[in-house]
Design a protein that fits this description.
The complex is a heterodimer of chains A (209) and B (224). With 209 residues, chain A is of the alpha/beta class. Chain A is built from six helices and nine strands, in the order E-E-E-H-E-E-H-E-H-H-H-E-H-E-E. Chain A starts with a strand and ends with a strand. Chain B has ten helices and no strands. In chain B, 45% of the residues are buried. The longest helix of chain B has 30 residues. Classes of the chains: A alpha/beta (209), B mainly alpha (224).
Chain lengths: 209, 224
Amino acid sequence: MVPLLDIQGLSFARDHRALASDLAFSLSPGDILRVEGPNGSGKTTLLRILAGLFTDYEGELCYRGQPLRGSGRHTMRSESHFLGHQSALKLSLTALENLQWLAALNAVRVSAKEIETALNRVGLRGYEEVPCRQLSAGQQRRVALARLFLVPASLWLLDEPFTALDRQAVSELEGWIAAFAAEGGVVVLTTHHALRDMDGLRSLSLGAL
Amino acid sequence: MNLGLCWLLLRRELLVSLRRRSDLANPLFFFLIVCALFPLGLGPSPVLLAGMAPGILWIVALLSVLMASDGLFRADFDDGTLEQVLLSPVSLYLTSLLKVLAHWLLSGLPLTLLSPVLALMLHMPSAGIPALLASLGLGTLVLSFIAAIGAALTVGLKRGGVLLSLLVLPLFVPVLIFGSAAVQRAVQGMDSSAPLALLGAMAALFLVVAPLAIAGAMRVSHDQ
């Protein structure tokens, strides 16, 4: 079977400091990859490379067997979610408007009902019409996470997804990640948080160079 | 990609701008106030003002568009939404085009609609008003596209403002020349269709080509 994501001989540097050399891993449906390492070890850079936001690297990256420098990129864009350090929310817009727009960016039209269901799942029932500026940092993070349930995907790239979340939300998110992997999704995440044991969980350590 | 999704993407741009009223009103106030200062500085002679009105209106409109475009992509860059736009399966050409159109609808268009009032204040003969509306309407659209290319190129820089002006002002010059010429000719009772046609051609060209340049510039600015 062709792995979803296949990385061979990946090397990258930031400001002339080599962060990783000759990384190789491949991820198949059901895999969760946790990228670990001290601050500045290149965790975010690795995620940005996978997402296609940073192209100054060497190596072969393939998505479903297609090279990410070519035809694989578009396939991956329509099948993946990238959640970065920033929540990608417009603070002046309501949760509903933000999610509607994020779904439209994925070329998907969602009804207000579907958004309500997604917000309900992340514990924000009744917050649809509240401008995101009035939400706490953790609630804003939850709105950003609601996107994961709104648009179906096969790959989640999560950069520090547990930031600002309370203990209950952390365990919920762990549950969602495990459930998503169990359904055949692939998750790559960076975190300093000690993840609970899940099926298919693997680790990748950066910062050895 | 259907029209409904295009509308959703456009609506979001409009909503974001409409909820930040000060950013919206600033360029219009600038246009209003600077045009109102000219009679005070030059003296109230109607002949002098009428002769200079097309040039004054055009130069101030140009600076006001430049002012409005500085932050065109900055907020999206800072809050991470630009990242999502870059990663979206929707073509960057389309999102760039809609972004600039939304920007023009809320800056260039109101400015164009406001201009006849200021033209009358500057004693410009009313024969020039149709040409003023047409030239500013087309011209501000071209200016918005040019400024958006500059804004996309400088969005990754901490202080991009000065560089943006240096980049785009030379490209603004032809628009200014043809725009004010159209009004000037109409005021003098001559046919102004030639400069207007040139402005129209520029608008059509930029409508097609500029989103490509903006998309490329955004990718380059973000790849770091």
